[in-house]
Amino acid sequence: MKIVILGAGALGTVLGAHLARAGEDVTLIARGQRAAYLQEHGATITGLVDFTVPVRVVTDPSQIHNADVLMVTVKTYDMASALASIKHLDVGSVLSIQNGVLKNEQLAQTFGWGRFWVPWQRSAVQCSRQAQFVSRSTRACILASCPQGPQHGSRPWVTP
Predict the structure, then answer these.
(1) Nearest alpha-carbon partner for 30 in 64, 66, 69
(2) What is the pLDDT of residues 72-100, one digit of tens each?
(3) In this structure, are residues 14 and 24 in contact, taking their beta carbons and an 8 Å threshold?
(4) Of 80, 105, 109, 155, which has the most beta carbons under 10 Å away?
(5) CB neighbours (10 Å) of residue 109?
(6) Calpha distance 12→73 (Å, rounded)
(7) What backbone torsions phi and psi does residue 53 show, to the nearest 5 degrees?
């Protein structure tokens, strides 16, 4: 699975490192000194587990053309410019791991509701078609995708 992570700060790097360690094809979109450090040293995780893993780092988002999954981990105040830099991407699914009330609408406007996941909410909303994504690294099951967009106020949801 080809995973692109927009935002290689603490959260993006932790997620990217664990996914890369699990064998996923991960690309981090990073800027400046952070990008240079990750390119030279790889992603280092310390704490409950200690490891360093090489990760692909891109500083120019136009170099990336597609992804199975786009994970957005930028600060919400950088969201508009970050999305403008990647709106050309052909993505299968988009997952945001951010705080904020506007990000869901911003992501859906850029990529469409049918590709967008809301990972932290639970709901009994039933979508007519569901897609299942199982991450080998976290063993998390995410049920998502209402391809025809919001219905009766519904959004794609996740179940644990």
Answers:
(1) 64
(2) 998 888 888 899 999 999 998 888 888 77
(3) no
(4) 155
(5) 12
(6) 6
(7) -135, 140
Q: How far apart are CA 57 and CA 45, in angstroms?
A: 16
Give the HSE-up count for residue 10: Cα atoms under 13 Å, Cβ half-sphere: 3
Residue 39's SS3 state is helix
Residue 133 to residue 68: CA distance in whole angstroms: 11
Token pair listed for 83: 């999305």
pTM for the complete prediction?
0.71
CA distances from 105 to 21, 29, 116 (A): 32, 22, 10
HEC sequence for 88-116: CCEEEEEEECCCCCCHHHHHHHHHCHHHE
Rounded to 5°, angle at Cα 132 from 131 and 138:
150
Q: Are 21 and 53 in contact (CB under 8 A)?
A: yes
Instruction: Say how far apart CA 85 and CA 65 lie, in whole Å.
Output: 12
